[in-house]
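Task 17 of the worksheet. Students: predict the tertiary structure of the chain below and write it out as structure tokens. Keep your answer in the requested format; marks are given for formatting as well as content.
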Amino acid sequence: MSSTAKFLAKRQDREDGVGTNKKPRPFKKQDYQRLKRKWLKKNTLFCDPIFPAGSKSLGYKELGPNSSKAQGVEWKRPKELCANPQFIVDGAKRTDICQGALGDCWLLAAIASLTLNHNVLCRVVPPDQSFSDDYAGIFHFQFWQYGEWVDVVVDDRLPTKKGKLLFVHSAERSEFWSALLEKAYAKVNGSYEALSGGRAAEGFEDFTGGIAEIYMLSEAPPDLFKIIQKALGLGSLLGCAIVATNAKETEAVSSLKLIKGHAYSVTGAVELHCLGRPVQLVRLRNPWGDTEWTGAWSDNSSEWKNICPEERAKLNYSAEDGEFWMTYSDFLQNFSRLEICNLTPDTLTSEEVRHWNYCQFDGNWKVGCTAGGCINNKDTFSSNPQFVIKLEDVDDDPHDGKDGCTLLVGLMQKDVRKDKHIGRDLKFIGFYIYKVPDEFKGRSNVHLNSDVLLHEKSVEKSKFISLREICKRFKLPPGEYVILPSTFEPNLQGSFILRVFTEKKAVASPMDVNITANIQKDCISESDVDPSCKELFMQFARNDSELSVRELQRLLKKFVSERTDIKSDGFSKETCRHIISLLDKNGSGKLGLLEFHKLWMKIQRYLEIFKKRDTDKSGTMSSFEMRDALNDAGFQVNGEILQVIILHYADQQQAIDFDNFVGCLIHLEMRFKTFQMFDKNTGKVELDILKWLCLTLD
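Model answer:
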């Protein structure tokens, strides 16, 4: 199946609700219920062929087949590790997540925060799974992955060394939900090693479908403590870290037992009174399950003696479990970064809290087509995908006291961990926000060109960074705006998700032209045929006075070979067949004189357009010029169609020669006319298998 067909099939699934949190897509087409029934019937434990118990699933470098860390690893099921394994013991708790021999503390910090929100946890870790009732060695978990929810199946064979779990484990040795969750997440990302290194925000987003904001604490806004309290009250997931400035500092422990380059989760924020003065405290958790802060308000510190016993007990301040309290001021002084994952309306099930409004869009940067790069690339910048959003209502009770419309814009590049094993680096990505010009307001069926974008200044923009996602908060006056996501350099292939969160309801959509064609009808007689055209026709037509595919191919080859202002490899047989299919009126499979004259007029017109768009006089046309050239020829296509066209008709240098340009226009005209023949004025065509095969094989 072609990539285009797969893309369209996936879009159809989404229109049917597949990929939503209510109807997650089975990852790798593995249906949990069907597989469980199958293996229960076989009375055998499930063994996952997609993520097998072997070296490939462990990793590719430090955990690769020949690495020292992978030596001695044995994959064991929980029933081989303890007498009475449990999926969850006394509810999922933060203490169930203890780090093993893998640098995924960022993920474990996210899992720890996940346990604070029961509704979110039950979505990621579906209940009613156990090692007793209907046990078949198979479990499943659900993650948000680049715009859709997936249901991930795993078997319960876990990597161990010397009879102990190698990676994440629970403090309760008979509990295995966290280890199996980590395995499912490793499967989605290709291997356990692919999880090494990251930010808690990534895990937050993949567990909730939310969008993460990052605050640098050296530049903390004055109301950040209130923001933290509000976020925790909304069920948001929070994480923080102390940035390591070099490799030696990573996981270095300070004199106060804080760890650099290590992810913590923020699990609480309270204001209490101590000796008559208010004190702001935040609660953090180290996913190692130990190594806690030893400064003021740490476990068993003297400050706790100055508050009442009831409050001390309520805050559970003295357990050696990796969780600790510290003052908000110490938090700002010692930590570098805070991450807050704002949840989507469908994640927040409570009606008592305010919800963000949000929308998301899939997009692609295609080489030579929609990968225009940043604004420094003036010839190609406008070819980037465009999205329009209409902001109408200002915020209620703004934090900063200023009227306006708050929006969070997040741009995420896809599949960043899956490609780690082949050494593919993250791209530098960013976006621009422009105000929609007055003449285009109220419309989404346009594509702003360079004449507009290069003469208007963006009202906002992000930095370009090499992270999975860049997210930024803005406050804009009511109005219509267009968002342009891009890579920094042009012609970098990639897929992305653009998400927009707003405090008030807003309308957003892709900004692209409608698909239309203005096909000219030619009514001519033999007297209208130019003598030179007739002479050329007779030179190649045989006694039947018609041009076959081969004869037409020779004629067109002669035409292009005599011109020095265009480049061509010669018209292919396929193109010549398409030409005859388009113009042959009597079904002979050949072109008569009048039919050839129509072709000749088209070629002359297309030649004029081609030369106009060949701005550097190279004899070829840049693929980035194809949209405007198609418009000149009467065809208006959106970005998706344009991507397919460039894929088929541009060469490796993203150039289009004359014969491919003509072939594209002929093919387009054929497809438009075919659609119009079957369309019953509904904008849709329904075909049975006979009609479908006849048309596609033509």
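Marker's comment: Residues 211-342 form a domain with the Cathepsin B; Chain A fold (CATH 3.90.70.10). The first helix runs from residue 3 to 15.
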